[in-house]
Amino acid sequence: AYDGYSCFVPFPHIYSVPYPSSIHWPISNIDPIASRFPYENRTILISFIGNVRKHSSSSLRKRIHDVLVQYNCSSIYCHLEGATHGDHLLQKGNSVFCLEPGGDSPSRKSISDSIAFGCIPVTFGYATAQQYSDFWNSDMRVDISIRDMMHGPDTFLLDYLKAIANNKTLLTSKRRALDKVKKRFTYSTFADHNDAVDIILDLVHRHASHLDCASSWRKSPSTFFSSPRLSR
């Protein structure tokens, strides 16, 4: 199980694919969320949506939950029991930063939803940050050390994210970088380019070009695995 502290060991033949988000890119190729949740209208500084009891990384999640409750601030949103998935998505669309601690694995579906709704992901630990190294980079997220989160002062998280939010140049830069990768974390409902399926096929294709089976891959990639893109 993933405990949040474990070292991230790279596996050169494994590619991680984002969880499907709740948003599918439309055939019009226009961001379906941006106009409904403009950046300038967001009133929540920090959102955390997640269970604090059922994961092997629960100590980190509990720490996050506890410090957010201590802030007692109207610009903080913490997961509420009984809230619907739709409620959570609305909160993401109204938030500047979305906290994304790992679950049973370094990643979670919430990351894809946060990106789709333009909420800057905040990761904890190297493993989560590097989970999708071919899909994103630190320009569009915030990476926080687990040790800083677990052992730093209670005000650390709020002070750290406030400093970024108050630096308008840095905040705008992260949002622009986020806009550029939004589509890479979604799964289109039609044959499309640059969505998650397209990216992973390109990665496998490039990897196959270095193997003996490269020529067979180019002729018939469907013999290697079944893909939603190839069946569309």
Percent helix, as a range, is 25-40%
Major sheet: size, sense and barrel closure? Answer: 5 strands, parallel
Poorly predicted parts: 1-7, 221-232
Instruction: Provide the spatial order of strands within the biggest beta sheet.
Output: 2-1-3-4-5
Strand content bin = 5-15%
Shape verdict: globular
Please, what is the average pLDDT? 79
Q: Strand pairing plus helix content: what structural class?
A: alpha/beta
Our count of helices gives 10
Distance between the first and last residues' Cα: 35 Å
User: How many extended strands?
Assistant: 5
Oligomeric state of the chains in view: single chain
How are helices and strands ordered from N to C? EHEHEHEHEHHHHHH
Radius of gyration over all CA atoms, rounded? 19 Å
